[in-house]
Design brief:
Blueprint (H helix, E strand, L loop, with lengths): L5 H7 L4 H10 L4 H12 L10 H21 L18 H6 L10 E12 L4 E7 L2 E6 L5 E6 L5 E6 L7 E7 L18 E7 L6 E7 L2 E7 L6 H10 L4 E2 L24 E6 L2 E7 L3 E5 L5 E4 L10 E4 L5 E8 L3 H5 L10 E9 L3 H11 L12 H11 L1 H8 L12 H16 L2 H8 L23 H16 L13
Parallel strand pairs: 5-10
Antiparallel strand pairs: 1-2, 1-7, 1-8, 2-3, 3-4, 5-6, 6-7, 8-9, 11-12, 12-13, 13-14, 15-16, 16-17
Helix pairs in contact: 1-3, 8-10
């Protein structure tokens, strides 16, 4: 019977004695196979009949959801279950996901079933939004894979995923604009991120559960149904505003491959950070690097200044590099010498198509006056309009360098142009007259032609670090699996 009923045999020997004895009384040649199939079904196993696997899986998820709701609502008489008691020999992941909040104090509000997530765990899970937490349950075993308090979450984004053959949405929820420094396991991250995606039109039945007055109600979206409203509802349960890039704010000049869920154009550009591919999303409030983990967000007020906050560097015009500079953290600023300016924290994004420079320049001109300034509700639109009229020429002049010299979106040349203008007034033509007459005059080092703005390519430290990282990756290889940064359908 052990070979014909493997699930029943495995469980019979480890059940509590009274239950094991009662179960033995039911075991007959007719009932044993039925009990074995029931245990197989409830434990997340596959259907013994391959032809019935689709219906089996659908019913299995419904059963898991119903049992999960019953488990959460069952009184525990004030005692924690034994398997949740932490001890020195237990799994670190289980210790991480244990919560001091009882189910009665943190009732579920919304559940998305069988979702493939990229972060905080890379598994197919049920995502349960409760009153004070978001929990990730293994879709098959119901084991808690991870849990994040809602109070830790800071920003939520709904992104039209790039590079998918079918239109697709990606949800990114950040607990901090900057990710943890260094590589840490997801369950040990001090700044957890939630990343998952869904097809824009459901390719298969999508199931979710709501809890009206505590009673679970399972809903099924038919294949082909748009999923955007469902994802917006999910984010709303997190009590966070939705930040969504739109073509009215920024539109990529490159079509790219695959389909897009965005309307009117793709509001992001393909780029590389070191050797990792991803997308820079330009929003009204800042710039997001995603969907490749770890994601990072640069709010306008966190950029270093209007001159150095965002620069575009291009040596050939065919490709360009975007350099974002964030204000240094307070602990780094405290270590600066008196009077020393904040150097900022640079991040370089390379191998961007040169066609994107005009769109980036327009986005910068409309918002550069807000770089580094505390956000004032209701004042942003007026400041943007005033600034865009004054400095349109600055960014264009920097981005379009003559010949093959490097170009930058910073407006450092503004002051330099003013200084050179004064010198020309004093010298009655200065350099131009000297060149035309061919007079041999002593040339000061600061006036050397190679010291003029734009004469020599400028390369930021972040760009140098990026090139070094790419070379190092080619020589020694990357220990991290690049496949982990692609969302599963």
């Amino acid at each position: 019977m052990s070979t014909a009923t493997p699930f029943l045999t495995a469980i019979s020997s480890i059940l509590p004695t009274p239950l094991s004895e009662s179960l033995a009384g039911f075991q007959t040649p007719e009932t044993a196979p039925v009990l074995d199939i029931l245990i197989r079904f409830l434990s997340g196993g596959d259907s013994p009949d391959p032809d019935a696997q689709q219906e089996w899986s659908e019913r299995q998820h419904e059963a898991m959801a119903a049992l999960g709701a019953l488990t959460k609502s069952t009184p525990s008489n004030g005692k924690r279950r034994r398997e949740q008691e932490p001890d020195s020999g237990s799994d670190p992941k289980r210790q991480k996901t244990d919560s001091d909040v009882s189910p009665e104090d943190d009732p579920p509000l919304f559940t998305l079933h069988a979702i493939s997530t990229t972060s905080p765990v890379r598994k197919k899970v049920d995502i349960v939004v409760a009153s004070s937490s978001i929990t990730f349950l293994n879709a098959s075993t119901r084991v808690v894979e991870s849990s994040v308090p809602l109070s830790a979450l800071n920003r939520a984004f709904l992104l039209p995923t790039r590079g998918k053959m079918k239109a697709h949405w990606t949800v990114v929820v950040l607990s901090s604009d900057t990710p943890d420094r260094g590589k840490k396991p997801a369950d040990q991250s001090a700044s957890p991120q939630v990343i998952f995606g869904l097809d824009a039109a459901a390719s298969a039945s999508v199931k979710y559960t709501t809890y009206a007055e505590g009673a679970p109600e399972l809903h099924t979206m038919k294949a082909g149904t748009p999923t955007r409203d469902l994802l917006l509802d999910f984010i709303g349960r997190l009590r966070l505003p939705v930040l969504e890039p739109v073509a009215a704010v920024f539109k990529s000049a490159c079509v790219g491959i695959g389909a897009s869920a965005a309307v009117g154009g793709v509001p992001g550009i393909e780029a590389y950070r070191a050797a990792k591919a991803g997308t820079l999303w330009f929003l009204d409030d800042g710039v997001l690097w995603g969907e490749s983990k770890p994601c990072e967000f640069w709010a306008l007020e966190d950029l270093l200044s209007k001159d150095a906050g965002l620069r575009v560097v291009s040596a050939t015009g065919r490709t360009c590099t975007v350099v974002l500079t964030r204000k240094s953290p307070p602990e780094d600023i405290a270590e600066l010498d008196e009077g020393e300016a904040d150097p900022g924290v640079e991040a370089a994004f390379s191998l961007i198509d040169g066609k994107e420079q005009d769109g980036i320049g327009k986005w910068v001109r409309e918002r550069r006056n807000l770089f580094g300034k505390a956000k004032i509700p209701g004042a942003g639109a007026l400041q943007v309009q005033d600034d865009s009229d004054e400095e349109d020429g600055d960014f264009e002049a920097d981005s379009e360098s003559d010949g093959g010299s490097a170009s930058s979106s910073s407006s450092d040349d503004d002051s330099e142009d003013g200084e050179s203008g004064s010198e020309e007034a004093e010298d009655s033509g200065g350099d131009d007259d000297m060149d035309e007459d061919g007079e041999d005059e002593e040339l000061k080092p600061e006036n050397h032609p190679l010291m003029r703005p734009g004469a020599m390519p400028r390369m930021s430290r972040a760009a140098i670090d990026m090139v070094a990282a790419m070379v190092e990756d080619d020589l020694v290889g990357d220990g991290e699996d690049d496949g982990e940064d692609e969302l599963e359908d």
